Amino acid sequence: MLKIFAATAKELLLLLRDRTGLLVLFLMPAVLVVVITLVQENVMELTGREKTRALFLDLDQGDLGRSLRKQLETGALDLVVWDEKQKDATDIQAAVTDGDYQIGIVVPRNASSQFKEEAARLFQQGQGRENPRDIVTTSVHLFVDPGIMAGLRAGVTAQLQMALTTIALEAKLAQLGGMLEKTMASAGVPPEVSPLDGGKLPALFRQPLLALQENQGDSGSTGASLYKPVQQNVPAWALFGMFFTAIPLAGSILQERCSGIWVRLAALPVSPLVLFAGKAVAYMGVCLCQFLLIALIGAFLFPYLGLPAFTISMHPTAVLLTVLLSSLSACGYGILLGMACSTYEQASTLGATTVVAAAAIGGVMVPVYAMPHVMQRFSIISPLNWGLTAFQDLLLRGYSLAAILDDLGRLLLFFVVTAFLSWKLAGIRK
Question: Is residue 221 part of a domain?
Fold first, then answer.
């Protein structure tokens, strides 16, 4: 135990001398977590969590424009209404094309009168009148910025189509109610006997019979909540920073090997595993400080930037254990790099490439469910995916320690395998 303590003290002294390297290890994940979280939060606002601003120009000033505006304002659109006396469709198109607004909606002139006329024609009887092909569809013009995401475009188009469908159904029901009223009057039925008159049918149509109740998992047994980028990104980029410590750790081993210090240490009555343990304990301290720094940024800086605060409200012990095992696996990988590579250039290039690749396929940069199916299958081989899945189960899904034991077991096994391979390489390189 004293030998491990001495080896750890040596590594800590070397780390304190490399202040620039330490600054990079702490600054890189801190900057990334702030930038990426701000971007993702804004993307979520654009894709449905917040209302999307859209230009609205009613050149008709009739019932159709008023009904459409009312329908859209109850949805996820924040309408910016332009004055029809000062603007026209060309102005809306120019504003959207220039990128000042992403969405533009124009109700053309005489749209209400045409709409009412065609709705009445739909129920008129006579030669050729009842054929749907004879009906002229009234169009509402939609302008969309070509640079917006496909998901936002599809969402706005679906909302606008739903509003138009609702208005059309209400108009058809009003016509149908009028026909029923006339039919029953011709049959001698008093108007007050029938509830299906022209005024009541649209109201009956708007009365909901089905409702959607959204449940976040098994709320009776877990603390699952709505997705928040903060709860995802803080542990994700902390893991990314932890695994980047593998590069300076490998560099310290290579420096000792190239300077001949490793040969002297190997000549002492000390197992290479003791030297590895000292390095692992020292760099695990760095990893813990990294996670603490990023967690403090999420808890205290993010609210000042308009983001939700990062919280660990449930199972803090399980979170700490996940941090420790993730740090341990990162240190194991760094030790293996230091023993397997011959130069620092090899270690830095291989380490940076593999860590970025593991982060990419592990769900740190893009969620696993958003990847192609082939990449989803490969994500299971990434140690960052194991750690991130454990954090998500704890912080997003509200699971307990028992639910993440398989991921923690993989992290521990990864360290054991890398330490064993490093020990074998140390024996070969004596």
Answer: no
